[in-house]
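Work Package 4 report. The design task specified in the project plan requires that, given a folded chain encoded as structure tokens, an amino acid be chosen for each position. We show below one input record used in the internal validation round.
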């Protein structure tokens, strides 16, 4: 992914806008697999690093895995209330960290949506961190108006795993992007909800 070049936009990189890069890769997958009877899908790998997301990722295909190299758990809320942290070993999430900046005007980092039949299937989001960058205006408010992942059409056999919820405020379908990492136990309930296509139309937002 880090070597991908968007046709007509060579200056855009995974570091400057990972959303635009992943959207370009998905478009290429669709172009390379046009046959109705042969759509094996693909895996998009995100190496360790810090990546800005300025453009919302739109997933409108099946059989796609977006896989990182670690969710990089760190508690930003503890840091905010700890005073001088200049001696700390690290203060930001590690692993595959996506900073959700949303300069395109969309609230979501990732939107799963496809019209028509059949329902989308086998979408896996694995082992990376969505970092909502900051809470505003109060860093202890746990609110910033951003959404991590939203699904607006039904899906089958899709889920997430190995998440640190580095910017979430709890188990939710529309994962709200906060700065602080929330409970890793939320991944089990979220994955269970995701696998239920009957519920996949809902944009859940459970606050803890």
């Amino acid at each position: 992914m880090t070597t991908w070049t968007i046709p007509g936009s060579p200056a855009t990189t995974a570091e400057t806008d990972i959303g635009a890069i992943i959207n370009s890769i998905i478009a290429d997958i669709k172009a390379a697999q046009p046959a109705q009877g042969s759509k094996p899908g693909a895996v998009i790998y995100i190496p360790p690093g810090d990546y800005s997301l300025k453009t919302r990722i739109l997933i409108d295909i099946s059989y796609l895995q977006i896989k990182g190299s670690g969710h990089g758990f760190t508690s930003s809320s503890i840091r905010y209330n700890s005073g001088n942290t200049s001696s700390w070993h690290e203060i930001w999430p590690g692993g595959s960290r996506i900073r959700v900046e949303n300069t395109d005007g969309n609230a979501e980092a990732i939107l799963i949506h496809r019209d028509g039949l059949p329902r989308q299937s086998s979408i896996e989001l694995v082992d990376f961190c969505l970092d909502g960058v900051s809470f505003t205006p109060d860093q202890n408010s746990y609110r910033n108006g951003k959404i991590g992942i939203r699904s607006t059409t039904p899906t089958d056999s899709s889920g997430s795993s190995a998440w640190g919820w580095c910017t979430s405020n709890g188990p939710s379908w529309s994962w709200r992007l906060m700065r602080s990492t929330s409970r890793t136990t939320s991944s089990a309930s979220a994955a269970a909800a995701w696998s239920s296509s009957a519920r996949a139309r809902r944009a859940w937002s459970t606050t803890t």
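Residues 18-31+40-199 form a domain with the Pectate Lyase C-like fold (CATH 2.160.20.10). Validation will be extended to a larger panel in the next phase.
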